[in-house]
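Justification of computing resources. Each target in the renewal requires a structure prediction run like the one illustrated here; the chain below, 230 residues long, is used simply to show the kind of job we budget for.
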Amino acid sequence: MSRLQQWFRSERQKISALSPKAAAEYIWQYYKLWIVGVVCLVSLVLFGVHQYRHNIGDHWLYVSFVNTRAEVGDGSELWQGYVEKTGYDLSQANVTFNNEAWFDYADNHARGNTYYQIFVGFIDAGILDAATMSPEALEEFGKTGRFLDWNREECASLRAKYGDRLIYALPIDTEYSTDPVPVGIDISDSILMTEYHIYPEGEGCALGIGAFSQHLEAVEAFLDYILPAE
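Resulting C-alpha cells:
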C-alpha cells in the first residue's frame, strides 16, 4: 500500500470515529484551504462556461435583471426598444439583458449558488454595468461595495437627474465609510414595473450600477428609457 493510500485510510478512520459535528470541525480545521481552493476553482470554471455560452465580448451595456421570470432578456420588446432608442451598432458591440440570475443575498446559504457566483464574477470583471432587484435586496447587497457609490464624481450627471431616488446602504467595509452611502435608486415607477411587471406588485424595483462599470452613459440612457419623463 502506498503512503498516499495509507494516509487516506488513516484520515478516513479518524473521521469515521468522530461525531458528525466533530468530523465537520476536524475537516474544516485541517482542510479549509483545500476546500476554499476547490470552491474558487469551480467558480472560475462556471464563470468561464457561462461566458463561453453567452459569447460575451465587447458590449455597449450589460444589465442583469435578478430574480424575475418576465420576458425582458435579449431580443425582448424591452431590449429592442432600448437598442432602437440608443441606435447602438450591434455589429461592433453587444447590448445584453440577462434575466437568468436567481439568488437571495440575505440568505447566507444562497450566496454559494452558481447564479450568485457568476453575478459577482461579472461585477468584479467589469462586465456587468447595472442590475435590478427589490429595494431591500439592493440595500443588502449594496453593503458589499460591489455597487457603485453614487457620491463619486463620475455619477454627477446621474445624481443631477435621479438624486431624489437614492437608496443608501451601510458598507461592511468600515474603512470605506462609517456612514450609509448611496448604492442605487428606486425605479418602482419605471416601465419595468408598470408594463413588464418584473417583480410582484408592492415589492418595488431598484437599480444598482456595477462598481467597475465603464459604461455610465449607457446606464443613464437605459434609465432615461425606462423611467417616466420628469
